[in-house]
Amino acid sequence: MSTSELSNALNPYANQPRPRPEIAAYSTEPVPVAQQQHHYVPHRSELELAVSEPLATAPVVIRPKQPTSGSVQAVQELLRIVAVTRESQEIERKRRLAWEQEQEAKFTQRQAEMERQMFELRQEISKLRSASLHPASTSGLLTPQYSNSPALAVQRPPQLASPVSPISHSSSYSHPMFLQGSSTQPIQSHLAPHDQQQQQFEQSTPVVEPTFPSVTPAPSPHLSYAHSSQPHETLASSANLRKRPSSQLTSDEEEGGNSSDSSLSNHGRPIRRRSGHDKRCLTIHHALRAHILRLMGLETDKNLPDSHKEGVPIGPHDPVRFVWDKTAKQSAHNFRMKARVLADIKSHRKQYKHVPDKDFGKKTLDTAFDQTFVTFRQKFKAQRDIVFAEANKRREDAKAQKARHLSRRKTKLSNRAEARMKNPQFEHVIFDGALQLECMSSDESDFGDEVGSSIRSSGILRTRGCLWRSKRLVTFFGILDDEERTEASSKPKRGGKRERLSGPPKDGFHLPPEGVASWMISRRWVKASHARFPDFPDTLMRLVQDPPGFDWDHFDFLGEESEDSADESQTYNNHGLQQNSVVHHTSTSSLNFALI
């Protein structure tokens, strides 16, 4: 039976000794047996094993919780909102600060402007008050008496012409005087420096004086002198101040104008005349004409001297003379005179400060002299030959007429282009070809010999359009003219437009300009021209340009296209241009005005 410490502890007899048997002794000595060394192992009793030991728990490792993607996005969104809010608040603060500074600057500027205006108003009030107190009581009653000294250093005080209302002269300076018939400005007397200071002081502190009723005195010889001579001189001087003499300019004004104009020309701006009375030489041609007349000893070219005889010498100090029958290259005398004129104008180039320096080069001067000499020769022939004068006059009249017609067409084109920009329905590219100078008809006023001089004297213009223009094009021009005329009616009238009447078409065969569209050309005119010229379609195709992208089916502002949509002036061509049956129309009709 096995025992244990627990059983031994519970058994009281367990510790009693027991008899042990004797062990026989051996004669032989025991051989020591090598025992293996055992490692120390602690003994575990059953009691110790009975008591349960606590199990060893492993250390708990707390791992950080991984954040989810939703929470990260929420935090980022909050941070972004905070940053945006802070930035917007900073921007608003800066804007408000700038606005406050701007308002303060405006208020300061407005306050300074108001103070300046108040100061000027006080000065004007003080001047008006001083002028109304002193001259008003003596107007028409004082007679100025001047001494005979030329310097007018001493001046007698004004005396009463009629003892109607005596006025005390207590002031130490003479008041400004008004004369009947003179200007509203008083005649200021010659004041000493201390008198001027005293006058300024008294103007700053106005004195209230009693006013007297205005009484017209009897005429006196003193007043008659003042009425007869002084107003005339005053009016003449004021007229001279208002109207500047146009015949000549003083040297100071010319020098000032030269300096200013030269500065403008240095900046590249063209010099222009101040008015029609400005006689300055701004071009090399004008300078050459004036210099040739000066060397010839003439003031104007109205009466040129006779032609010089070839071979007769002229001294260096004699006036320049030309052989008018020959050019500068044909005549040796004219060639020498040309060299003399060019050398002299180069030496006196300072007299023509407005002419650019580059125009005084040899090539430019030679060309300008040849052109100027041709003009002088034509004027000499016109002065000597009546037939040539009449032909020259007709040529000049034709040039002037052509310039007038061209100017009217340019004005018409400019007005229609402005009216088109204000009408959004005509912004398409297909309408660009209609706004050309060749599409405008002419306004003629030189037709008095044809339809009567009364029409010419009345100032009515006759409009002559081209046969190739279609009805749509005429309607297009009429709409633009109505738009321009409506806008002009709301502005102040400055002369107004002259009345027009529709006349016959232009003489001759005229092709439309390059760049027109097919809707601008009359079909009837195309058929008639094709019958006259077989190769007409090929020529017309090279001129017509139809931009794509425009639908005429949905655009009815210009009416419908038809075979009979030719210009109404075609009837004149079919009936032989019956000019005597022209009907007068006023400019109120948009269709008649569109034939311009």
TrEMBL record:
It comes from Collybia nuda. This is Uncharacterized protein. Residues 269-278 have a biased composition (Basic residues). Residues 1-14, 195-206, 226-250 have a biased composition (Polar residues). Residues 1-21, 153-278, 485-513 are annotated as: Disordered. Residues 162-176, 257-266 have a biased composition (Low complexity). It comes from the Eukaryota.
